[in-house]
Design goal:
The protein is mainly β. It is 0% helix and 46% strand. Strands 2, 4, 5, 6, 9, 10 and 11 form a seven-stranded mixed sheet that branches. Strands 1-3-8-7 form a four-stranded antiparallel sheet, with no helix packed on it.
Length: 127
């Protein structure tokens, strides 16, 4: 099972940018489709973005499309979430997740598809 560690969270002003990173252990990172989810206080965890094993396919939830970009570097075993033009409603704990059974070009927005999760990194956007 892959181990995931997120970093890069913090406090940012509305309109600013932040880049989250998720480092994965193991030698088979390229065999995992990856995703980012978030959970705001008092709310359920929601899908943010996903990327295929090769990085050639991505998908986003509507509320972040055009502002956030998911990418991966398989040589560094790392997936990123570049967050631009952030809004107070982006405030949440952000989690990365790995899907070990993904098809080569598959992207997955449903949480049960993911078998491994990181511990989360907190993002707070001030108005």
């Amino acid at each position: 099972q892959v181990q995931l560690v997120e970093s890069g969270g913090g406090l940012v002003q509305a309109g600013g940018s932040l880049r989250l990173s998720c480092a994965a252990s193991g030698r088979t990172f390229s065999s995992y489709a990856m995703g980012w989810f978030r959970q705001a206080p008092g709310k359920e965890r929601e899908f943010v973005a996903a990327i295929s094993r090769s990085g050639g396919s991505t998908t986003y939830t509507d509320t972040v499309r055009g502002r956030f970009t998911i990418s991966r570097d398989n040589a560094k075993n790392t997936v990123y979430l570049q967050m631009n033009s952030v809004k107070p409603e982006d405030t949440a704990d952000y989690y990365c997740a790995a899907n070990p059974t993904a098809s080569y070009r598959g992207v997955y927005s449903n949480a049960p598809s993911y078998g491994s999760w990181g511990q989360g990194t907190q993002v707070t956007v001030s108005s």
